[in-house]
Design a protein that fits this description.
Blueprint (H helix, E strand, L loop, with lengths): L11 H8 L6 H21 L4 H14 L8 H20 L10 H10 L1 H4 L4 E2 L13 E5 L2 E7 L6 H13 L5 E5 L12 E5 L9
Parallel strand pairs: 3-4, 4-5
Antiparallel strand pairs: 1-2, 2-3
Helix pairs in contact: 2-3, 2-4, 3-4
Length: 205
């Protein structure tokens, strides 16, 4: 089997491996479908910092549509349409958060305040992340590697599932959710730590 290119999950060798020259079985369809959905999520997130890259990812997703199984086609096009609207709104500046209070701005403030938020934490700027599992930060604390996910609004159940996925994938003992608030209906797992941070109240000097 050809080796996958981690920098581009849709290169020819990957598609050949997953499709076996288009002779798909259900397991291969499901695996490729999961990759496509994850990449659409990354495109949505990437739109805040690199519009062209977001659009490039979406074009790569389109190339794989024939291989994801007919039962997934309608769902894919609804998801693709939703992400495209999201990207276009950001590009046109409609409904987009300001640079200071948007996701990227909040991340910068978290980075500046990291030692106050998590004493002893060191941000790993050169940590090699898997392209389909990308937390906002990876830190090292007490010799352990842990993921951080930053949210502009309150933490939801989807946010918890996201950080748990990162914890499991990178085999970390804990992970952090940093956001203005936590939904009252959520009980966090023991390995997820919530840290309240509201950019409007925590601007660093």
């Amino acid at each position: 089997m050809a080796r996958h290119n981690n920098n581009n999950p849709f290169d020819k060798s990957t598609i050949d491996d997953l499709t076996n020259e288009a002779n798909l079985d259900q397991e291969k369809e499901n695996l490729l479908w999961l990759i496509v959905v994850e990449m659409l999520g990354i495109a949505s997130k990437k739109a805040y910092t690199d519009y062209s890259k977001a659009l490039e990812i979406m074009k790569e997703c389109d190339k794989v549509v024939p291989y994801i199984g007919e039962s997934n086609w309608d769902t894919y096009y609804y998801l693709h349409h939703a992400v495209m609207i999201h990207v276009c709104y950001i590009i046109k500046g409609r409904g987009a958060a300001t640079p200071e209070t948007g996701k990227n701005g909040v991340q910068e403030q978290v980075k500046k305040n990291i030692n106050r938020l998590i004493p002893g934490a060191e941000i790993l700027n050169n940590f090699k992340r898997n392209p389909t599992h990308i937390p906002d930060f990876m830190i090292k604390i007490d010799g352990k590697i842990r993921p951080i996910e930053v949210k502009v609004k309150k933490v939801t159940l989807a946010s918890v599932r996201q950080i748990v996925r990162y914890i499991n994938f990178y085999k970390a003992d804990k992970g952090y959710l940093i956001a203005p608030s936590l939904s009252d209906t959520i009980d966090l797992p023991e390995n997820v730590i919530f840290i309240p941070f509201d950019i409007n109240q925590n601007q660093s000097s």
